Amino acid sequence: MTKFILTVAAALLATGTALAHDYSVGDLVIDHPVARATPANAPVSAGYMTIRNTGATSDRLIGGSVDFAGTVEIHEMAMDGDVMKMREIEGGIEIPPGGEIKLQPGGLHVMFIDMRQQLQEDQEHAGTLTFEKAGDVDVVFNVESLSQIRETMGNGMKHHDHDEMQMEESN
Q1: For residue 71, what is the DSSP state?
Q2: How many domains does the chain have?
Q3: Is residue 159 in some structural domain?
Q4: What angle do CA 31, 36, 40 make, to 5 degrees?
Q5: Owning domain of residue 122
Q6: What CATH number does the domain containing 28 carry?
Q7: Within a domain: 14
Q8: Which of 133, 159, 137 has its CA nearest to residue 146?
Q9: Given the DSSP bridges, would you call strands 44-53 and 28-36 parallel, antiparallel or unpaired?
Q10: How high is the pLDDT of residue 44?
């Protein structure tokens, strides 16, 4: 009986850890990295997550790599007059000490370019995020629909994201 209880407890603990979908390196915690599901032949996709810095010094997300795309860049969506534009952020994104950044639809995000395959809901794909100080962190991107991503991240934005936009880079 004790063996059974320990087995069930271990299984529950493992399930809770798997559902948490967090990754840590040094003082950084990467929460729930997701990639957006794509239609067939889409040239790009986007990745979202929250990154917390529990340390006393800043770090920067400067890039990464994934098995499903040729290039990974750090991008932002921002208003230029009354036009929403997407652009690469040269030098990456700073994660301030004691702070966090949210990569979410309509704002900061990881851009996956030169897609090698279609991303379908419920898939998982290996990836690496590269930080200036912490170095490389291996993560798994869960593939979710835009509505799942919004629900998970608490993002109710319906406009100014990749929903109705052609997913192309602007220079």
Answers
A1: E
A2: 1
A3: no
A4: 155
A5: 23-153
A6: 2.60.40.1890
A7: no
A8: 159
A9: antiparallel
A10: 97
**CB–CB of 119/142 below 8 Å?**
no
Which tokens in the block code for residue 166? 């052609």
Task: List the one residue out of 152, 74, 59 whose CA is nearest residue 113.
Answer: 74
pLDDT for 167: 41
* Residue 160 lies inside a defined structural domain of this protein: no
SS3 breakdown of the chain: % helix, strand, coil, rounded to 5?
15, 45, 35
Closest listed residue to residue 119, CA positions, set 167, 79, 87: 167
Decide: 111 and 170 in contact? Cβ < 8 Å.
no
Structure-block tokens of residue 128? 């690496």
* Contact call for residues 125 and 66 (beta carbons, < 8 A): yes
Q: What does each C-alpha distance from 111 to 7, 122, 168, 169 come to in angstroms?
A: 41, 19, 10, 9
**pLDDT tens across the length of the chain (171 residues):** 555 444 444 444 443 434 447 999 999 999 999 999 999 899 999 999 999 999 999 999 999 999 999 999 999 998 888 998 999 999 999 999 999 999 999 999 999 999 999 999 999 999 999 999 999 999 999 999 999 998 888 754 443 344 444 444 444
pLDDT at res. 4: 43
